[in-house]
Amino acid sequence: MKSITLLFILLTLVTHSWARGPSSPKELESFFDGFLSAQLLSRCIPGATIAVVRGGEVLLCKGYGVANLRTGQPVRGHRTLFRIASVSKPIVFTAVMQLVEKGELGLHNDVNHYLKEFRIPHSFGKAVTLAHLLTHTPGFEDTYFRKWSQNMKQLPSLAHYLAINRPICVRSPGETFGYSNYGASLAGHLIELQSKQTYEEYLKENIFNPLGMANTTARQPLPQRLKKYMAASYRYGRRVNFELILDRPAGAISSTAADMARFMMAHLGWGPANRPPILSDDGFAAMHQRQFGHHPLLAGHTFGFAYEEINGERIVSHTGAMVAFRSLMLLLPDMEVGLFVAYNDAAGSDGHQELKSVFLDRYFPEQKKEKKRKVFLRSAGANQGLEGWYRSTRFSFSSAAKISGLFGAARPLRISGSDLRFLGARWRPLATDVYEETTATSHPRRLAFRREPNTTPKYVFVGRKAYERLSWYESPPIQWAILLGCHFLFFSYLMVTFIGLFKKNSSKRSPYLPIRYRWSKITLFTLSLINILAGLFFFLLLLRGIKDPTRIFYGLPWWVIIPSGMTIVSTLLTPLAIIIVAWAWHKGEDSTLSKVYDSLVALAALVFICWLQYWNLLGFKY
Q: What is the pLDDT of residues 254-287, one digit of tens each?
């Protein structure tokens, strides 16, 4: 009798758990037929591929739209390959965890213990470990140049690429989250060093072949047999050639929805019955459990996935983005459910997030009715010191890409009553230094600060992302004011000089005459002209980047050497101009007003050099 009762309870629990989530393949297909067809049409996306699994069953594997706009070839879930971009990382990190289980890699060992051709310095007196790489917390700056290529004949070895493109450490390892493609590629390189194979060969032998992922590869370019099945890629309707990813473990894998279904089922404990699992239960658990987070109420990161709780469910996921492809893999380990989707156009940027939200709300709705929110009572002045400018920790500090700080990388945080305004959203207080998004969304984000009592915060965290507070002089308004103020003086000096040269009354010679009359004038005139031309060239480069931001991943145009060379000339002329202006004051030449004006222009040239240095635009920092 007791055994029958226990069996009944067990069956009740299983039935209850499986009552949530997708269960009918026909119903699921009908839902996505409507949703994805409408989404592709409204966003002008050529095609998409999707897979949904539950337990050991594939509930849906289907393609939508076309793989190629020219030929009209349809997307087929079992055949059409898509670039999965950064969804490659969980696959590579699964391979890393295999070597950890074999004892060939240690999660908490210094990565320098394994490296041979280059070293990762202990910039903050703390070693970078494999665990830091798997949680995106090594403290590396982000790098943007030399990421991708379309030259099939020039693909450097992974070791060579990592050695010459090593980023600097800008914060202590383990301090904050800072998404790092370099860190993921470094983890892939550790696979090569320990297995004595290329990472592509290791993945094929230890991940793809055991799981039957016959149409998945990490090779670039694609093997000949798979090329004809590759979906064409587009960027807002414009065809894009096959992208070679130089830091390839970070996002080079191409796969089908059917193969990704096999990978998801393996992670959910349903690998092929005739083969041993690719990872132990403990290994999978480590990849599904929260390993790092900035605050208990915020999303965090596992060894390979973003971690969050939505509608009462534990969710691990990863998104991917390339010049043209967008992708998402989402796992609900407790419910043994997985979802994969990929689009072959950059117009799918937010499409996967929209699909994720709709899928979770439909099949895993919030179980409890929302209770009336209690008003959080805070002490007076709780918002004091929070206002300011904050910049994403995914940022380049040592290259010219730092200029992105003037174009969206830094965002203002403002106080509005008891609420905050940040990242285009309004945030209401939830707990001490914790806020929740108030916009109309079923899955509101949360925001938290890290600070000592009654002090200014160093960071603000939104989900798993981190934003560091800027000093007042680093804020975009101040930096723009410096740039525009300097160029106003340069431009006005050119105009005054030209006006002086064309004065009709030659008997009253202007101080703005050729070199034989005023050395300081010609020097300042040349310096102003060079600085304005350099600024113009940089502006044209920025316009090119704004029109297509991904261009810098392929490399900068040859003519970038022109403004970069001008900055060197300006650096050499500026001290000369200052010396000549000082000599004019000493000799008492010209009027006082003229000398003050010359001094202001010389000072502006010096400030402009400092401005260029701050933004890494001085010289050739590419």
A: 999 999 999 999 999 998 888 899 999 999 999 9
The tally of CA atoms less than 13 A away on the side-chain side of residue 13 is: 7
Under a CB-based contact definition with an 8 Å cutoff, are residues 218 and 55 in contact? no
Whole-angstrom distance, CA of residue 158 vs CA of residue 164: 10
With beta carbons less than 8 A apart as the criterion, state whether 275 and 590 touch. Answer: no
> pLDDT tens, 204-232?
999 999 999 999 999 998 999 999 999 99
Residue 407 tokens read as 């174009």
Q: Which of 555, 520, 525, 410 is nearest to 470 (CA)?
A: 410
CA distance 45 to 41: 7
Taking each continuous run of H as one helix and of E as one strand, the counts in the chain are 17, 22
In this predicted structure, what is the pLDDT of residue 307?
96
Q: Is the peptide bond before 221 cis (omega within 30 degrees of 0)?
A: yes
Better-scored residue on pLDDT, 380 or 193: 193
Nearest to 393 by CA among 622, 176, 147, 132: 176
Q: From CA 91, how far away is CA 203, in angstroms rounded?
A: 8
Identify the top-confidence range among 332-336, 347-351, 441-445, 493-497: 332-336
CB half-sphere exposure, 410, CA atoms < 13 A = 22
Mean pLDDT of 188-194: 96
Q: What is the pTM of this model?
A: 0.89
Structure tokens at 270: 């349903």
Per DSSP bridges, beta strands 254-255 and 244-245 are unpaired
User: How is residue 182 written in tokens?
Assistant: 């370099």
Under 8 Å between Cβ of 124 and 378 = no
Number of Cβ within 10 Å of residue 453's Cβ equals 6
Q: Are 282 and 100 in contact (CB under 8 A)?
A: no
